[in-house]
Amino acid sequence: MIKKVLVANRGEIAVRIMRSCREMGIQTVAVYSDADRKAMHVLYADEAYHIGPSPSLESYLNRNKIIEVAKKSGADAIHPGYGFLSENAGFSERCQQKGIKFIGPSPYAITNMGDKITARKTMMEAGVPVVPGTPGKISSESEAIKSIKEIGLPVMIKASAGGGGKGMRLVKNQRDIKSSLRAARSEARSAFGDDSVFIEKYIESPHHIEFQILADQHGNVIHLFERECSVQRRHQKIIEEAPSPILTPEKRAEMGEYAVAAAKAVNYEGAGTIEFIVDKDLNYYFLEMNTRLQVEHPITERVVGVDLVKEQINIANGLPLTYTQNELRQSGHAIECRVYAEDPDNNFMPAPGKVTHIDIPYGVGVRVDGYIYEGFEIPLYYDPLIAKLIVWGRDRQEAIERIRRAIKEFKINGVKNNLKFLERITLADDFVKGNYTTHFIEENMDFLMEVKPCGETCDDMVIITTFIEYLDKMEKASPKEMTALKNNWKDYNRVRNVLKL
Predict the structure, then answer these.
(1) Distance (Å, rounded) from C-alpha 70 to C-alpha 49?
(2) For the domain that residue 346 is a member of, what is the CATH number?
(3) Quick count: other Cβ atoms within 10 Å of Cβ 484?
(4) Cα–chain-centroid distance for residue 358?
């Protein structure tokens, strides 16, 4: 049985993994770069080892150094979290060669599902619906033009070797094919060291829905239902919820069965995610498989009642799954917001810096997975995700009300962040009604951007939201300061009208 786990990651996911390990009586080992010497995962772990300079390539992506630390510390397993080396088949294989358990799938599964073209072929052979597209890589511009003519515009050109929106281009016009193909290849080469691309039919007004799966070493595979991940900006998820507000019980059951079939097709072991794209008529198609834990896994944990990290460790120990499919149910509704150190007013540029003050929201149904604390310097070298705010409610309405309350209570000073942007998302009509698509952000950007004091053209909800922010200031203001606040805000009287004050 695993007795000590090295977590080959940083930030909130490293802390989250260590918490489950501690509950299981398993010791933890942290690794850190120069920039993370005082990071929370370093302070939380039982042991911590320096692995290199701040840039990821010289530290968190240094496979040899991480394995060296694992051997030195006596760790018998490595958990890669997500990102970094989590979907690196070579790292998984190297762990096996060194007698260290890799808490994740086999190199075979990572390789076959990590390459999108191979994954498409595998899913087609398994009978899982896939988006119409090219059977393999595109070798030339003339082949691309011919394939697009057969598929029909619009199409997506996608990098074969990666994800996260890199190496991806939407083509709506014939004249843009060549330039889009070159751009996608160039970006793919830069991001993944592989410029191969393929082409898929573009699904208009799509929903991005993924199914969580678990598979043990005894052939047992289950799904833990779905997550709706359609609130995205630049193909990066911002808010996720479970269950999806659009799926019927029948569609949920069908897609769950296909998710299990997809995992079985590659003899999968561990936790993974089968991602689908769903059109306005609820037709669904396999998109890709993520062979790791997902950022948004906590909402599944909250709705289904399963600790996914503990299940991963049990699977790595060779134990059978703790649950059968028939034992699993969705209970209530959960929403996750990704809190970033970024500046929405400056094209969402990362905003590293020193955290001078932080208030974490608490209360019934609220969970925060984070890694920052007062005085911590957020590095500029890594993803700007600093926390995940997760709430649960008895139904979707209560979950929405709770996430709004929790966002308002979440205060981070010293660095710019996207909390106000997240709050605006939860106020938008399309989100409240649950009928949003992956185009939600771009279609609602004017509403979602931080509200400034405005004129007669503002709608009542914008006015009221802004007024509430002013009330927060007024609570601490002297009579003189309160008068100045009122005089400086030209919509004050109009708000009194709206609220009938």
Answers:
(1) 10
(2) 3.30.470.20
(3) 12
(4) 23
Residue 160 CB burial class (10 angstroms; 0-12, 13-18, ≥19): buried
Domain count, the chain: 5
Say how many C-beta atoms besides its own lie within 10 A of residue 161's C-beta: 20
Record the pTM: 0.84
Q: Do residues 459 and 493 both lie within one domain?
A: yes
Active site includes 189? no
What string of pLDDT tens digits covers the 501 residues of the chain?
Answer: 999 999 999 999 999 999 999 999 999 999 999 999 999 999 999 999 999 999 999 999 999 999 999 999 999 999 999 999 999 999 999 999 999 999 999 999 999 998 888 888 999 999 999 998 998 889 888 999 999 999 999 999 999 887 667 789 999 999 999 999 999 999 988 888 888 999 999 998 899 999 999 999 999 999 999 999 999 998 899 999 999 999 999 999 999 999 999 999 999 999 999 999 999 999 999 999 999 999 999 999 999 999 999 999 999 999 999 999 999 999 999 999 999 999 999 999 999 999 999 999 999 999 999 999 999 999 999 999 999 999 999 999 999 999 999 999 999 999 999 999 999 999 999 999 998 999 999 999 999 985 554 444 455 555 555 566 656 555 666 666 666 555 555 455 555 555 554
Report CA-CA distances (Å) from 232 to 164, 207, 208, 229. 11, 10, 9, 7
User: Are both 282 and 186 inside the same structural domain?
Assistant: no
Q: How far is CA 270 from CA 79, 249, 300, in A?
A: 11, 26, 16
- Domain residues for the domain of 484 are 451-499
Give me the catalytic one of 252, 292, 338, 402: 292
- CA triple 39-40-43, angle to 5 deg: 95
- Amino acid, single-letter form, for residue 265: A
Give the pairing of strands 101-102 and 27-33.
Answer: unpaired
Strand order in the sheet with 197-201: 168-171, 155-159, 197-201
CB-CB neighbours of 454 under 10 Å:
15
